Amino acid sequence: MDRSMLYRRFRTLLIANRGEIACRVIRTARAMGLRTVAVYSEADRDAMHVALADEAVLLGPARARDSYLSVERLIEAARKTGAEAVHPGYGFLSENAEFARACLEAGLVFVGPTAAMMTAMGSKSGSKELMEKAGVPLVPGYHGEAQDDATLSKAADKIGFPILVKASAGGGGRGMRIVRSADELGPAIVSAKREAKAAFGDDRMLIEKYVDNPRHIEVQIIGDSHGNLLSLFERECTLQRRHQKVIEEAPSPTLNPAQRETVCAAARKAAGAVNYVGAGTIEFVSDGKDVFFIEMNTRLQVEHPVTELITGIDLVEWQLRVAFGEALPLKQDELRLNGHAVEARVYAENPTKNFMPSVGRISTWRLPAETGGLRIDAGYREGDTVSPYYDAMLAKMIAWAPTRDVAIERLNRGLQESDVRGIVTNIPFLSALMTHPKVRTNAIDTGFIERELAVLTQAPPAPGELELCAAVAAVINDERQAAQDEASSPWQTFGWMPVGRRQRSFAFRVGHGPEQKITLNYGSGPSTLVIGDRELAFAVVPKDGGFDLTLDGVKSQVAAVIDGHELYLRTRNGRFDLHWVDPFGGESEEHVGEDKIAAPLPGTVVAVLAEEGAKLDKGAPILTLEVMKMEQTLRAPYAGVLKSIKCKVGDIVQEGVELAVVEPSGE
Questions:
Q1: pLDDT for position 137
Q2: pLDDT at 150 over 60
Q3: Are 176 and 192 a contacting pair, CB within 8 Å?
Q4: Which strand (E) or helix (H) includes residue 56?
Q5: Percent of the chain whose predicted confidence (pLDDT) is above 90
Q6: What is the pLDDT of residue 161?
Q7: Catalytic center residues
Q8: Does residue 91 carry a pLDDT above 70?
Q9: Which of 150, 177, 499, 513 has its CA 20 to 30 A from that of 211?
Q10: At a CB cut-off of 8 Å and minimum separation 6, what does 83 contact?
Q11: Is the pLDDT of residue 492 over 60?
Q12: pTM of the shown model
């Protein structure tokens, strides 16, 4: 094939993706002088990546298969806008050989490997066969084409439990299940196939021996069309939950220099087996002694920023230059490893409710400035809406420092100074993870988060004296701001009184807990707050995002968000949600029973697991929803009889809709 069909200079780039990665690619492309084209679904009309691009094309409805996974619509979008090249980002069609081939046939440069390379290495089964021939060490497993139940069951028995069932075309933990006994195998395969089909359009499975207490090591590689192939050191991605990476760092704190060179050489050998061109990642699993190849991702990874920060290389820029047909600007011996970088993935999810995705409008988005080694790659802004149709990742926070300990401290400081409201995020969970002593000492494996979940999701401390005083300050500050927006009047100014002193009482509570009372004395002379038998001198100085609160001469910085009677406060003691009991505003509460079997979020019913009339134990599975590309199983809240099922497979249900009714047993 004519090399100019694959690699040539272009001026207009279409990004076939959304969210954080689309924004990331757009920024580098524009810095290189390229014109950028975004694509979007109906759910993403006002998304950040749409606003950043020079042009944007509507693909279709919200569901990914009708928009971001439609090859025909993406090619048509490129034709409409005069785009000459396509960057696939990660996820969606980024590892789809048919998409790469369709781009080539449409005369578009595909920023990534060729369809042939993708087929050879992007298939986890195919790549393992190739690596076996190349002499790269593998985890024992089945990587064959036959996918019938009998073949997969026989393979599992031969390998020996526990095993890992995983999607051949997948990534990001989707379509992956740990199976510890033969009884679990059938349901695990059915569920994994269904999830893989929905996420990747391919339900082929492979089976591997599950390595207990494993560590996840991966090597960033990049090749050009001139035969140059580099490894850009390794990353450690051991901190995972359900096979989804949570924290990544580079270099790996587990490997010594000799081990680093060994694993990087193995990665170059793996990619060299197909004369790889483009950016990719060779992933390994380690049992503490040996390192085994598990798969290659033929695309840019979510965690690529940690590699960029320790090498000083913009990987997206290098991807684009390789697509131009240029040679890589450095040789292997010219690469230098500098310092340490750690990344945390910020998700719209609730860790205290089994990491249930959170959807809605982002009412507050305050992240720290990108200074002092801190970098933030975001795909959302204040006012944006998180929909239930796509991956729930909002942003990535990355910190660089000369040493690992300082990088962790910088990342944790950035997390602690972040305030996102309107949706629930995993930010407090990430901060708890980064401050865990075993994370600091690198005494971890891929099962660490699950084992330590109770510690990592502990309820926040009860509000103390500082928080109650800060709550009063937040209310007063909000009223002061409202008064400034109205006609000027001395009666609307806090603390102004014609004569004497006045009092004002406040009451706050956490959830449905007891009220905690506090009294404000103000008027002529200094203001004070009274809590119980303590009286504290009180002063407030407003600032962006909150205020400085001084109590008895001690000044504290407080971040605050007030929405009606609901207060969010961040003090030196942590984050707090308080309800202001307004004596004049009235109180109305809606109580929803926890026994209701309802859709926790908008989603699609993908499986009904019990029949009407069936006797159920507490926790028995009733049905499965697909929410944000992940499956959620709804279970019986108590032992009883399944009286009715109010949905069927394929139904799209909205949040809060009752899906089934269980009649409790009389026991």
A1: 80
A2: yes
A3: yes
A4: strand 55-60
A5: 73
A6: 93
A7: 299
A8: yes
A9: 150
A10: 12, 13, 14, 37, 77, 108
A11: no
A12: 0.82
Q: Three-state DSSP class for 97?
A: helix
Question: Residue 536 and residue 403: Cα distance in Å, rounded?
Answer: 43
pLDDT, position 134: 79
Beta strands at 35-41 and 12-15: parallel, antiparallel or unpaired? parallel
With a CB cutoff of 8 Å and minimum separation 6, the contacts of 8 are 109, 324, 325
Comparing C-alpha atoms, which of 547, 471, 467 is closest to residue 506?
Answer: 471
Give the pair of three-digit tokens for residue 146.
């036959």
Q: Is 109 left (phi over 0), alpha (psi -120 to 50) or beta?
A: beta
Which residues of 64-132 form beta strands (DSSP E)? Answer: 85-87, 109-110
d(CA 490, CA 228): 74
Average pLDDT, whole number, for the chain?
A: 91
Question: What pLDDT band is residue 483 in, cutting at 50, 70 and 90?
Answer: confident
What's the CA gap between 301 and 492, in Å, rounded? Answer: 54
What CA–CA distances, in Å, run from 417 to 370, 400, 572?
12, 17, 10
Beta bridge partners of 549: 540, 556
Rg (CA), the chain: 27
Four-point Cα dihedral 257, 263, 267, 272, nearest 10 = 80
User: Across 70-195, where does the E strand assignment appear?
Assistant: 85-87, 109-110, 141-142, 163-167, 176-179
Please give the structure tokens belonging to residue 638: 């108590």
Whole-number Å distance between alpha carbons of 42 and 421: 24
The Cα angle at residue 509 between residues 504 and 514, in degrees rounded to 5: 105
Do residues 83 and 108 make contact, with C-beta atoms less than 8 angstroms apart? yes
Cβ–Cβ < 8 Å for 351, 426: yes
Q: Which residues pair with 302 in a beta bridge?
A: none
- Residue 177 CA to chain centroid, in angstroms? 19
State residue 507 phi and psi, 5-degree precision. Answer: -140, 135
Q: Which residues pair with 259 in a beta bridge?
A: none
DSSP code string of 182-242: HHHHHHHHHHHHHHHHHHHS---EEEEEPPSS-EEEEEEEEE-TTS-EEEEEEEE---EET
SS3 of the chain: helix, strand, coil, percent, to 5: 30, 30, 40
Give the count of beta carbons closer than 10 Å to the beta carbon of residue 362: 19
- 302-327, pLDDT tens digit by residue? 999 999 999 999 999 999 999 999 99
List beta partners, residue 138.
293
Within 10 Å of residue 531's Cβ, how many Cβ atoms? 16
What sign has the CA pseudo-torsion 231, 240, 399, 442?
negative
For the ranges 153-162, 349-358, 394-403, the maximum mean pLDDT occurs at: 394-403
Of 460, 139, 122, whose CA–CA distance to 290 is shortest?
Answer: 139
What is the pLDDT, as a whole number, of residue 22?
Answer: 98
pLDDT at 487 over 60: no
604 vs 272: CA distance, rounded Å: 42
104-147 pLDDT per residue, tens: 999 999 999 999 999 888 666 677 778 888 778 888 888 888 99
CA angle 295, 130, 69 (to 5 degrees): 50
Nearest to 540 by CA among 468, 470, 466, 464: 470
Cα–Cα nearest to 322, from 352, 300, 344, 303: 300
